[in-house]
Amino acid sequence: MSDINTNSALSGLISKYGTDEAKAKNGITSTTSTESSEGIGNQDVFLQLYIEQLKNQDPTQPQETGDMVSQMAEFSSLERLTSMASEMSNMTEALMSNQALTASTLVGKSVFAPQSSATITEGSAVQIRTSFPDDALTNKLEVTDSAGQTVKTIDLLKEEFAWDGTNDAGEAVPSGEYNFKVTSRNADGEVTELDTELPARINSVTINGEQGTTLNVQGVGSLKLSSELEIIG
Q1: Ramachandran assignment for 148, one of left (phi > 0), alpha (psi -120 to 50 degrees), beta (any other)
Q2: How far is 131 from 133, CA to CA, in rounded Å?
Q3: Contact 172, 160 (CB under 8 A)
Q4: CB of 214 within 8 A of CB of 223?
Q5: Which of these, 201, 203, 206, 197, lies nearest to 232 by C-alpha position?
Q6: Beta-bridge mates of residue 136
Q7: In the Cβ-directed half-sphere of 232, how many Cα atoms lie within 13 Å?
């Protein structure tokens, strides 16, 4: 019995019976086309070629058992790969559908995003988040209106703070756009302006765009759904 060579079995089969010219040389008169849009990778094409080989082999020199086993093993592998590809395709479609459904439920909610200004309604609160440096001695939040006037100054003790929408006199500020600036001072008196994150509304969702599925956030732009995001109800 000859050695089984699964890498050469299919190529040998194709070279002998995979084209009209090769079939003619081997006395095959079947009009079945072996050229399809799916090519030789189609398991039906493979099986047709194999049957043609068995029908037209030389009775005085039948195919060796090893070659037959090798070709059948090749066919079995092809069938398994075809099944796996179909299952992977179904899984991908299911994941995409689930992602689209999840993303659609986020429209109208808010997400913490890097920004330093927000439009507020009179009497409403705004959550502000930052990160204090390790050498911070004091941290201060300054809220200014659209005209650049300071309406409130607050000493921050925590990295996340909710401004209640009032000025230094305790009065509710009118609706409008307000800016938030957080600074940190160390023991040497050095002052550093810190990054801030504010809630931003999710206006819409883009499914499977150039950057994948993204959230279209007001005042921020597109944020990838795969990014680390903190959604605010």
Answers
A1: left
A2: 7
A3: no
A4: yes
A5: 201
A6: 186
A7: 15
Residue 170 DSSP symbol: S
Tell me the two tokens of residue 73.
């093993």
Q: Which residues, at least 6 apart from 186, have a Cβ–Cβ distance to it below 8 Å?
A: 133, 135, 136, 137, 192
Q: Are 125 and 162 in contact (CB under 8 A)?
A: yes
Q: Which mean pLDDT values do the consecutive 10-residue runs of the chain (233 residues) have?
A: 43 52 51 44 63 67 59 66 72 64 79 90 91 95 96 95 94 95 96 94 81 83 77 75
What are the helix and strand counts (H, E) for the chain?
4, 12
Residue (of 65, 80, 81, 73) closest to 10 by Cα position:
73
SS3 34: coil
Structure-block tokens of residue 83: 């099944």
CA distance 68 to 222: 57
Distance CA(223)–CA(102), nearest Å, equals 15
The amino acid that residue 182 corresponds to is V
Tell me if 179 sits within 8 A of 117, measured CB to CB. yes
Rounded Cα–Cα distance for residues 34 and 17 (Å) = 9
| Residues 6 or more apart in contact with residue 176 via CB below 8 angstroms | 119, 120, 145, 146
Residues, the chain, total?
Answer: 233
**Does the predicted model carry a pTM greater than 0.85?**
no
Q: What's CA 199's distance to the chain center, in Å?
A: 24
Amino acid at 180: F
